[in-house]
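FIELD: query
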Amino acid sequence: MRAHPAATWASHSVLLCSDIHLSDDNPALTKAFCAWVEESSQRISPESLLILGDLFDAWIGDDVLVSNQSQCAQTIASLLELQALKGIRIGLMHGNRDFLIGEQFAQQCNAQLLSDPCVLTMSSRLTVALTHGDQLCTQDLDYQTFRKQVRAANWQSDFLAKPLAQRLEVAHHLRAQSELEKKSKSMEIMDITPQEAEVLAEQLAADVVLHGHTHRPGLSPMSNGRKRWVLPDWEVNASGELARGGGLLIGQRGIEVVSAARV
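FIELD: result
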């Protein structure tokens, strides 16, 4: 049974990232992400580390840890647990690929699951609406239908009751189907609907909307002086070098980009 995710988070300095898409098939990316977290935590000493979804490229259940089916998952659990032991508060939000991360994995990382959306209140009085971002992509009707299906408790219970090997097959099928559908969709349809970000900011009385998912990092203006920040996605090139990555830091100096050096 999962604990109730945190709907609010208060802090004075927060390091944020998303869309790392880690897997056992890409050890170079796991190495690069671990190096970034360790270096950033040592250099910046943030009070919190919040990962806003798609930490993993796929997650088929917390029992991958117990069954030792994923070296990547074990490595990341150890990484986050170590950061927590240093005094950094860890928050994990579900993404569109790892929405089955449960309380067992969170506990092993000494992390807190976050609701989507989640309100981040900074000591600088800045209020930030945090979301993975996929639920803001309302023009992609097929995806929203799929999202509603797989986020339903009954679907998740049925899926998690299947043997691990069968779940892995289903995950591969869904991923292949998603990649195929992407080829026929425009970038505009797969991006967020700006009005949805405006509505979210209004509902949560937020100064900033911050999300990932779209792989279009940057800063965009919103109405009434609000701003929208998009987190970068992560990728290594054919040589195993980091091509894209990093995150954002929110602190006394506002919001800053935290780049990821090549490893």
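FIELD: remark
The chain has a mean pLDDT of 94.
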